[in-house]
Design goal:
- By secondary structure, the chain is mainly α.
- The chain folds into two domains: 74 residues, no CATH class; 78 residues.
- The chain contains five helices and two strands; from the N terminus they run αββαααα.
- A hairpin with a 4-residue loop joins β1 and β2.
Length: 154
């Protein structure tokens, strides 16, 4: 219903999939800079842009981490073997993410027209929440590994 609405929607949500399905702009609040940044595109495009962004656009917590990393000796580049292992692990995680996202899309379609029986509708919602809970740690792990590989390339 929201996707068909012809007007403007200001959506505040932690549900990445809902945001990705509906958003045409992402607004990021940067309290430390007292700024509001607008990104034209979907949530997936926003995340990709953040991953590939220059270090000068890093958020304050990341800046703190990099500052503490500067005080320590610079770590070596990843070995070729370790890099390949990480790439394989990322590919495996991406496959799992893809599968879970497909299952979530199926559940969303079912929830769009829920059954009249309240128990069945609750079961659908519980299954959706379970899939979402399985997906979150995979996304976090993928992001950490992708960042590690990206830093190695820098």
């Amino acid at each position: 219903m929201l996707a068909e609405y012809p007007g403007t929607i200001l959506l505040v949500s932690h549900d990445r999939y809902l945001i990705d399905a509906l958003a045409t702009q992402i607004w990021e609040v940067a309290p430390e800079e007292e700024a509001l940044r607008a990104f034209a595109g979907s949530y997936s495009e926003y995340r990709q842009a953040k991953l590939t962004a220059a270090p000068s656009t890093a958020t304050r917590p990341e800046t703190r981490q990099s500052t503490s990393a500067k005080s320590q000796p610079k770590s070596k580049k990843l070995s070729r073997n370790r890099r390949q292992q990480l790439e394989k692990k990322i590919a495996a995680i991406e496959a799992q993410i893809h599968t879970l996202e497909d299952e979530l899309a199926l559940q969303e379609a079912k929830l769009a027209n829920p059954p009249a029986d309240g128990r069945k509708a609750a079961d659908l919602a519980a299954q959706y929440n379970h899939l979402h809970a399985k997906l979150e740690p995979l996304l976090s792990e993928w992001e950490q590994l992708a960042t590690l590989l990206q830093e190695d390339q820098a």
